Structures are given as structure tokens and as C-alpha cells.
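Bumping with the actual sequence this time:
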Amino acid sequence: MEVDPLTGLEAARLGLYVHFPYCLRRCPYCDFTIAIARSIPGARYADAVLGELQLRLAQRPAWTERPLDSIYLGGGTPSLWDPAEVGRVLQGIARALPLAVDAEISLEANPEVADTARLAGYRAAGVNRLSLGIQSFEPGVLATLGRSHSPSDAEDAFRAARAAGFENVSADLIHGVPGQSLAGAVEDARRAAALRPEHVSSYVLTVERDHLGAETVFSRRLRQGRLALPDDAAVVEMVDAVGEVLAASGLERYEISSHAVPGRHSRHNALYWTGGESLALGAGAVGFRRDGAGGLRTTNLRSTPRWLEAVEAGRLPDEERETLGPEALYEERLLLGLRLRSGVDLRRLWAEHGAVPRTTAVEALVRDGFLEPVGARFRLTGRGAHLHQEISARLV
């Protein structure tokens, strides 16, 4: 893994993302590309993922010139995918692309489908990092979020991960949920920390339309006045309190929503925050590659049946292709880089992208307590982190 010179964070420079869309149900807040299915066509989907990989490499052989630093299997619910099929996909990737010796290979898992035997199968297949979608330990919050596991299921899944041989486990938490209290969010953080994970992602609930432009259950309820979200001040209090609990347990915040013990940050996620390149496979998967001073972002067909049909017919399953110029890349690099506690070398960023220096704006943000210098870099203060997007906009 390389250290990104702008942020000082070790991050994958080239990663591969595999999207597994299948779920048993859609959570009311979910805006991801998913397909509800009781019978999972795991073998067919694995065949199609490997088929798309060959199409992508035929289109751009340059993908094979550098080793993959990370592979991430997200969803959806990847833990519904049979471990043998996951192993077949990982073997196919390793045959087609060089893989770094220390590559991080992650898989997302839901507690209700994460028993020891299944998780041991993923570990044997080559997965070395597990991300558990715990979300909360409070039954009422889990019910509001539409989750089907119980608090004990979450703890059992974590113990199963350890029994299966995983030494790098992340737990996801969500706060700012309707009806959730500050005490409840703090207790969630305490129970998560008590499991001794290497990483915790603590997200604030967002309510928005899904990627197809349709409303989620929560967004419809919010529009109809049937959903009451906690006010901003309450959410800020939750964020700060959760961060304090996790920090006291050795899980330091290294990104706005991410906490880890030293050396266990998500190197694949860091790829996105530091402008790395990603090859993406599967329905709705989003990839990015540099192209001269700009870049190209591709989004696969979001409809799983249409994605399968295209790949099985030997066609690239592109739905969108977005060309990003130098200015757009600068804005994105700034926005995402400022999420990191290590900060951004703004002067170097300005020079690399030919951007007009915003020295006066930086000085004002430092004076007002929103930014602070860290060596050659600048980072958001605790106060500034709550206004991340607004501050980023002032530096564009």
C-alpha cells in the first residue's frame, strides 16, 4: 500500500469493487442498487461477474499493468453469496489480475446470515477483512431501520467472525435514527467497542431518493410528514458522544464517519477519499480511472436482470459514463480529502490541479476555528467536521 502524499494516509491506489445486489428485503432507508430475492442465483451471478471482468480487461488491458491493492465485495447482502462462489470469483480475479501480497480483501455481512461455518468459508476463500452491518444494539432502532437481526444476533456474528479466523473486523453503526436518544447512541457505541473490533463505521442516517430516482420508504414518509428525524443539534451531540466513547476504547476517528485502531483503517475506502482508481464489477457498480488530467467514472446498469442480460450477451453493461475534467477532479479531491483527520496538503493540491489558491479563505477558516494546520496539511477541527460540505465549498 502506498501513502497518499496529499493526505499522508496509507491507501489502495488500485482497487476492485464487486457489487452483490441480492437482499432478502429492502431496508426503508436503503438507496443502493439491490434485488429482492428468496432464491439467490449465486453461480449465475459469479459467472457474470467473471464475464464482465474479461470484457473490462479486453476494453482496457492497462488494468493488468499494476497490482490490485484491495478487493471489496459490497451490496446488497454479500453474505447471502455461497462461500464457494465467492472463492471462485476471487480465484478468477487473481488469475486475471496481479494481486498485491498484502491486498485487503473485504466482504460485507449481515448478522442474521453470518454463522461460523459460512464465515469460515469466506476466510478460506481469501477474504481477510469482514464488515458487519450491526447498525444498532437497540431493538426499537433495529425495528425502525427494518433490520431483521437482534442485538444478540449481532454479538453472535462478531464472535463467529473471530471463531472463523478473522483478525480484522469492522462494525457499522447508524445514529440520528427517528426515536433514537443520545443515551441509546452512546450505548450502541459502548456495546460495539466492547466487542473489540479493529474498525467501526458510525454513519448519520440520511434520507434521500434511491439511485433509480424512486423514493425510499423513509423519503416518502418524510415528504408526507410521517417521519420525524432528530434535529441537527441532537445529531451533532450524538456524533461527538459516539466518537468520544470509541476513542476511549482505542478506536480513533481517522475520517468523519470512520474509527480504527492504529493500522486498521479501511484501505479500500481510503482509495475513494484519496483519488485512487477502481475497477467495478456487478449490477450498479461504479468505477473510476484517470484519463490524462481528468478522469472517467462509469456506472453499470442498475437493473440486475438487465446487467445479467448484457454481460451474458457479451456487451459492456455501462449505464452511465461521466467525464471529469481537472476542475471537477479538484473539487472532488478536496471534498473527499477533507473528510480525513490527517488533512489535505492544500498548496500541493492547488499546484497539481492548476487551481487558484484560496489562501485568504483558508486563513479565515483557521481564524474562525473550522480548519487547523497539521504540518504542511490543513484539516477540519471538531467544529469544522460538522460543516464539512459548507467549508469545502468555500475552498472551491
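The C-alpha cells above came from a reply further down the thread. The chain has a mean pLDDT of 94.
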